[in-house]
């Protein structure tokens, strides 16, 4: 069990989500979750907003091992923000694919449209139940990441007094990155609308 997998499971299960979350936002939060799990495992430390890697070693989780191997090991070390953008690219799809391979999620097909992929549903499993229990307990790392990804209405700063400096740093970086990504989406939407209006003669 990792924080990233827990976050993905509760977001898909509907346990955490008050609204539909963008895949890009969740990818950024998953990258932040990996950082916090690696810090908890002693694989890295944070020096301000810089990620200082420790000695590499195998971990029980394949994707977390991949994350550890992806750490930048040259000085000046990578910032948390840069890690989120680099590691987060396509991370939602990567975690979802792993869960599907393991049977953690299933595709719901309609009999009369067999070629369409259908929507995904979280399979009932001990992993899912543990993730839901962690969520229900209000564990601040998981709920703080969910807030930063806009799965919750509360701002992530509300969880700061229940966490350490590393968690506060990562939550703030995820929140800033998600805000920036939303601004990019809005700008593109405006540009696309203006382009469409030109073609319509408006």
Automatic annotation (TrEMBL):
Keyword Membrane attached: yes
Location(s), subcellular: Golgi apparatus membrane
Gene3D superfamilies per UniProt: yeast vps74-n-term truncation variant domain like
Membrane topology according to the record: Peripheral membrane protein
Keyword field contains Nucleotide-binding: no
Coiled-coil regions listed: none
Keywords: Golgi apparatus, Lipid-binding, Membrane
InterPro entries on file: GPP34-like (IPR008628), GPP34-like_sf (IPR038261)
Name the record gives this protein: GPP34 family phosphoprotein
Species this protein is from: Streptomyces mauvecolor
Lineage: Bacteria, Bacillati, Actinomycetota, Actinomycetes, Kitasatosporales
